[in-house]
Specification:
Number of helices: 2
Order of helices and strands: HH
Distance between the termini: 12 Å
CATH class: Mainly Alpha
Largest sheet: none
CATH architecture: Up-down Bundle
Helix content: over 70%
Radius of gyration: 21 Å
CATH topology: Methane Monooxygenase Hydroxylase, Chain G, domain 1
Length: 96
């Protein structure tokens, strides 16, 4: 692969990684918020023992599960792109 092509791909990967890391930071912040909400809902559910509070607790737990899955997907994509970046860097330094 030609050096300019590798450099363009590295630049594109770097930009994508920056965006994904920003998204990951937001997802982790949201996950912490949803987890705190779910914990509060769990306590309310235990104290009030009503169907409504139990439903709110289950809904809050679903939000946590969904956000954790999203965060895990972001982490996996970042790892995949970092591996691709390492491969491109190896090609670049191997050519030089």
């Amino acid at each position: 692969m030609a050096r300019p092509v590798v450099e363009r791909r590295l630049t594109a990967l770097g930009s994508r990684l920056v965006r994904l890391r920003e998204d990951l930071a937001v997802a982790e912040e949201q996950l912490a918020h949803f987890a705190a909400d779910a914990d509060d809902a769990r306590v309310r559910s235990l104290v009030s023992e009503t169907a409504i509070s139990e439903r709110e607790h289950r809904g809050a737990e679903r939000h946590v599960t969904t956000m954790a899955l999203h965060r895990d997907q972001l982490v996996a994509e970042i790892q995949r792109l970092e591996a691709a970046q390492d491969d491109l860097l190896d090609r670049l330094t191997g050519d030089g």
